[in-house]
């Protein structure tokens, strides 16, 4: 059974429908890139999968033992978030809150999980540093470690390389691919279609055209060629 199955979804807010009759599924082990022009509904879809928006119609079904609260999420950062005055350890630990219920403190197992994920992201030596003093790439690694504290199965990433320089962008793609190779399912919104394609197993294209299938099928579809030469802004 898929980890997520979306059936005839219609999405929107404020009385406006953005996406109609969308059907696709996310299987364990996929690296699914969601692309499309501005306003196509990519972020609305992600917020719906997280339970932050209700679908206007249709259904989202979770399977393969995945529960909605066990999805790890890395959102686009605002300037306020980049300037957040907390330590790296505190931010990574906050990813455990979904498993705590009403409990107001962390157990040792949660502290150990945070430590393992900081080590996994190569930021263990930054644990006591203030988050706002880090570089953009370091901050993204912190947020990935935080997201991993919420899940061992599926990560939703919203423009994870936005605002990063080319060297750091390439490094971030490698980090995400390492997570994928370790067994984590990746669902990533990206405007950087050309850079993301080498890593993706599947593509969901929203907008004037609709496509869902494998990366190779996407590349063979001549209608998608313009998305690879910069003629469409797919943010």
Number of beta strands? 9
- Most strands sheet: 6 strands, mixed
Question: What is the top-level CATH class of the largest domain?
Answer: Alpha Beta
- Count of helices? 8
Q: Strands across the major sheet, in which order?
A: 5-6-7-3-8-9
Strand content: 15-25%
CATH homologous superfamily (4th level) name of the largest domain: P-loop containing nucleotide triphosphate hydrolases
Task: Note the quaternary state here.
Answer: single chain
Distance between the termini: 30 Å
Give the SSE order as H and E letters.
Answer: EEEHEEHHHHEHEHEEH
Q: How much is the average pLDDT?
A: 88
Shape: globular
Poorly predicted spans: 230-235
CATH architecture field of the largest domain: 3-Layer(aba) Sandwich
Please name the CATH topology of the largest domain: Rossmann fold
Class by SSE composition: alpha/beta
Please estimate the helix content: 25-40%
Counted up, domains total 2
Q: What's the alpha carbon Rg, rounded to whole Å? A: 18 Å
Secondary-structure blueprint of this entry?
Layout: E1 4-13, E2 16-26, E3 31-36, H1 42-49, E4 57-62, E5 72-74, H2 79-82, H3 88-93, H4 108-120, H5 136-150, E6 154-158, H6 166-181, E7 185-189, H7 193-196, E8 202-206, E9 211-214, H8 215-220
Helix pairs in contact: 4-5, 5-6
Account of the protein in words:
With 235 residues, the protein is α/β, with parallel strands linked by helices. It has two domains: 28-53 and 67-71 and 152-235, Rossmann fold, CATH 3.40.50; 79-150, no CATH class. The protein has helices spanning 42-49, 79-82, 88-93, 108-120, 136-150, 166-181, 193-196, 215-220; strands at 4-13, 16-26, 31-36, 57-62, 72-74, 154-158, 185-189, 202-206, 211-214. The protein has a six-stranded mixed β-sheet, with helices on both faces. A three-stranded antiparallel β-sheet has the order 2-1-4, covered by helices on one side. The chain starts with a strand and ends in a 15-residue tail after the last helix.
């Amino acid at each position: 059974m898929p980890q997520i199955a979306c059936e005839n979804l219609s999405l929107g807010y404020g009385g406006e429908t953005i996406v109609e009759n969308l059907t696709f599924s996310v299987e364990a082990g996929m690296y699914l890139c969601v692309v499309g022009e501005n306003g196509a509904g990519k972020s609305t879809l992600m917020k719906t999968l997280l339970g932050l928006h209700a679908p206007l119609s249709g259904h989202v079904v979770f399977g393969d033992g995945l529960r909605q609260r066990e999805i790890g999420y890395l959102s686009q950062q605002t300037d306020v978030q980049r300037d957040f005055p907390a330590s790296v350890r505190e931010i990574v630990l906050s990813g455990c809150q979904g498993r705590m219920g009403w409990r107001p403190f962390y157990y040792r197992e949660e502290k150990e999980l945070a430590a393992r994920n900081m080590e996994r992201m190569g930021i263990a030596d930054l644990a006591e540093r203030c988050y706002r003093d880090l570089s953009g790439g370091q901050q993204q690694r912190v947020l990935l470690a935080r997201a991993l504290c919420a899940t061992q199965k599926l990560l939703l990433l919203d423009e994870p390389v936005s605002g990063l320089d080319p060297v750091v962008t390439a490094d971030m793609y490698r980090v995400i691919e390492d997570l994928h190779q370790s067994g984590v399912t990746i669902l990533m919104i990206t405007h950087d279609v050309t850079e993301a394609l080498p890593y993706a197993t599947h593509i969901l294209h929203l907008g004037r055209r609709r496509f869902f299938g494998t990366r190779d099928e996407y590349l063979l579809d001549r209608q998608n060629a313009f998305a690879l030469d910069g003629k469409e802004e797919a943010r």
